[in-house]
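step: validate -> pass
step: tokenize input -> pass
step: predict -> running
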Amino acid sequence: MKNITSPELDSYDQSILKALQKDGKIGNQDLATKTNLSSSPCWRRVKKLEETGVINSYVALLNPKSLGLTAMAYVHIALLDHTQQTIETLDDFVATKAQIIECCSITGSNDYLLKVIEKDTESLERFIMQQLLRLGIVRASTTNLILRQQKYTTALPI
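step: predict -> pass
step: emit ->
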């Protein structure tokens, strides 16, 4: 991740970012038209937003159900301790497990919140019981199965 210096964003930059959040595959000419810019200035602004780290990457958002991934859960975990070795063990585990699609260090009675996705609830249980908890670093965990997802977006409010 690039070092973000929090540049000032004018209305053109904001329009570019809003358009790219809706359609990351939009061509420069179409983007320029949508943002009331000509092609070259639009391209330069996008490059500057990329170089300053405002635009971090471009991705394809996949439909989990179409890929057979029907079980999603939030897993709250409290660690046994907060030693560097324990935290590195968790960090390494999270980095290598595709099932974990989000990981946050949080405040409160738990230390981390993981968002985990699997093909079904049985696979989810196996992942939690046979992989996560077998690390030997989790003091307690609570799993909340997501029944229905009313909203999902990666778009930030600009």
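step: describe -> The longest helix spans residues 39-51.
step: cleanup -> pass
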